[in-house]
From TrEMBL:
Positions of the UniProt region annotated as Aspartate: 199-202
GO cellular component entries: cytoplasm
Gene3D superfamilies: Bira Bifunctional Protein, Domain 2, GAD-like domain, Nucleic acid-binding proteins
Organism placement in taxonomy: Bacteria, Bacillati, Bacillota, Clostridia, Lachnospirales
Organism: Simiaoa sunii
Protein name, UniProt field: Aspartate--tRNA ligase
Keywords noted in UniProt: Aminoacyl-tRNA synthetase, ATP-binding, Cytoplasm, Ligase, Nucleotide-binding, Protein biosynthesis
Any Pfam family matching the protein: GAD
Residue positions binding L-aspartate: E175, R221, H446, R487
Enzyme Commission no: 6.1.1.12
Length: 587
């Protein structure tokens, strides 16, 4: 054993009875029976062991120790009279004759009970993260994270990928989110940026002659927190392949990820290769989302034509999407709660009606449909007992609202959602361009570095809004794990693609000088992807919040309240960096 212990707290078994041992760990709890009898739980990284204090002298020692102090215990192992089959060490106990304090907890009361820390206020958990991480369930997640990252590395090496680290200090680049900027002390008025992704570096590696690259890449984006996104930094399984197509990328991901999910996940079933492939426009029309949860077997139906002129104002002149659910036994209260949640998530209302056992339309908006009942039944394929959820608005609004409605109805219906598995799919054929909501001008829809399907011919001869890109998203259980693409490696095609959004050759050279110049020296066709490590581990561990699987996450306001970041700095530091503070810092 290591250090001053003979065994860890998860190691002693019935075969160790009679041995003299030394254990170290945290004093978790004591059940005191009398002044000379008490049962103590000692915990370390590996597990717990019960100690039995049987003398007044030892009890006096324990009475002077606060919970969560670290202690060293010497004593003899004996068989427990009342065994605990739920613990690996449940057949034995240790009777100590020497107890020494190694690290004293000076507080009589803790901010929260260690084993119930996940029920505590989130800010308290983050402020005292070192206590939160002592919770065995939290520790388990972090251990799992280490194991999964090691497994991902092993599998990438086995497929002949080379791990290469790329710079953390680089230049600001328009990746779609805000940069974290770092002032350059020796270059007044200039800034480094922390990379939002290693995108340009990995593409330059392909132009440099490296064939298969990967890294567990730290990425930095100044964006707001969500349940599946931590502000500040996150990690990707970043990969790129030279002389590769979309099919090559799919093949690698389908070999690497499912075995990891099945080995470590709370569910032991994951999609087998090849994953389902769904064109973007089909995904929006059929599921109301470009990250559909395929565990739910419900699909959207277009009800626009049959609902026009029914007298319900919200439907007039709008696209109407329907979700038909058979054998849906939810109460009116449950239905109202689902509709309320649809509005919370989308800012648009959800509507509904039922077909009762006699074939009559009842509830919700049913009164507007009585004079066209047969047409509605035929258009939506209805039968007695069906529930119909409806969403209306402009086409994309109606699709997205119905998509949220679909997820909520699926989750509320055991029949229509298979919960105990990991369902992967590829969303493919994204539009290359779109009309920007704010600008009203043509913009890149997804990634400006993607190769347009059809190459230069498509850029020259097709309506830009009809051009598709070799762009793809990886989705698992309704969570987007990654975006990827076949890259635009041809300088002429790149220039033309940017010209369509109003940027000329000079703009491309100014924004992406290194990558553009590298491609001018002969670049291979290449493609890649970067599944989010944090999101993968969140799904594998079955956690609802990404902060449960990150050792030291920021809170929702992008603050590390344990370390006090962001914080103020001394004037001397500002002077060295040629910076002046113009706004008063927050208290």
């Amino acid at each position: 054993m290591i250090q001053s212990r003979t065994h860890n707290c998860n190691e002693l078994r019935i075969g160790n009875v009679g041995e003299r041992v030394t254990l170290v760990g945290w004093f978790e709890n004591m059940r005191k029976v009398s002044k000379n009898l008490g049962f103590v739980i000692l915990r370390d990284f590996y597990g717990t062991t019960q100690l039995v204090v049987e003398t007044e002298e030892m009890m006096n020692v324990m009475d002077g120790i606060n919970k969560e102090s670290t202690i060293s215990v010497e004593g003899v192992v004996r068989e427990r009279s009342s065994k605990n089959a739920n613990l690996p060490t449940g057949e034995i106990e240790v009777v100590p004759d020497k107890i020494e304090i190694l690290g004293k907890c000076i507080y009589n009361a803790l901010p929260f009970e260690i084993n119930q820390s996940k029920d505590a206020d989130e800010n308290a958990r983050l402020k005292y993260r070192y206590l939160d991480l002592r919770n065995p369930n939290m520790k388990k997640n972090i251990v799992m994270r280490s194991q999964i990252v090691a497994e991902l590395r092993q599998r990438m090496y086995a497929l002949n990928f080379m791990e290469i680290t790329t710079p953390i200090l680089t230049c600001s680049s328009p990746e779609g989110a805000r940069d974290y900027l770092v002032p350059a002390r020796n270059h007044p008025g200039k800034f480094y940026a922390l990379p939002q992704a290693p995108q340009q570096f990995k593409q330059i590696l392909m132009a440099s002659g490296f064939d298969r690259y990967f890294q567990i890449a730290p990425c930095f984006r100044d964006e707001d927190a969500r349940a599946d996104r931590s502000p500040g930094e996150f990690y990707q399984l970043d990969m790129e392949m030279a002389f590769a197509s979309q099919e090559d990328v799919f093949s690698i991901v389908e070999q690497v990820l499912p075995p990891v999910f099945e080995k470590y996940g709370i569910y032991k079933e994951a999609s087998k290769a090849p994953f389902v492939r769904i064109p973007y426009l089909e995904a929006m029309d059929k599921y109301g989302s470009d990250k559909p949860d395929l565990r739910i077997d419900l699909v959207l139906t277009d009800a626009t034509e049959v609902m026009q002129g029914c007298g319900f104002a919200a439907f007039e002149g709008q696209t109407v999407k329907a979700i038909v659910v058979d054998d849906f036994t939810a109460t009116r209260k449950q239905i109202d709660a689902i509709c309320a949640e649809v509005e919370v998530q989308t800012a648009h209302k959800g509507f509904w009606f039922r077909v009762d056992e006699n074939g009559e339309f009842v509830g919700g908006i049913s009164k507007f449909l009585q004079d066209r009942k047969e047409e509605v039944i035929k258009a939506l394929g209805l039968k007695n007992g069906d529930f119909v959820g409806l969403a209306a608005g402009k086409k994309l609004e109606a699709q997205k609202t119905a998509g949220v409605y679909r997820k909520l109805l699926g989750a509320a219906s055991e029949k229509h959602m298979k919960k105990d598995c990991y369902e992967f799919c590829w969303i493919v054929d994204f539009p290359m361009y779109e009309i920007g909501e704010e600008s009203g001008e043509l913009e890149f829809c997804h990634n400006p570095f993607s190769m347009p399907q059809g190459g230069m011919d498509a850029l020259n001869n097709q309506d830009p809004l009809e051009i598709l890109a070799y762009q793809y998203d990886l989705v698992c259980n309704g969570v987007e794990l990654s975006s990827g693409a076949v890259r635009n490696h041809d300088p002429e095609i790149m220039i033309k693609a940017f010209e369509l959004v109003g940027l000329g050759e000079a703009d491309v050279k100014a924004k992406f000088p290194a990558m553009y110049n590298a491609f001018c020296y002969g670049a291979p066709p290449h493609a890649g992807i970067a599944p989010g490590v944090d999101r993968m581990i969140m799904l594998i561990c079955g956690e609802e919040s990404i902060r449960e699987i990150i050792p030291f996450p920021m809170n929702k306001n992008a603050m590390d309240i344990m370390m006090g970041a962001p914080g103020t700095v001394e004037q001397k530091q500002l002077d060295e960096l040629h910076l002046a503070i113009t706004a008063k810092p927050e208290e």
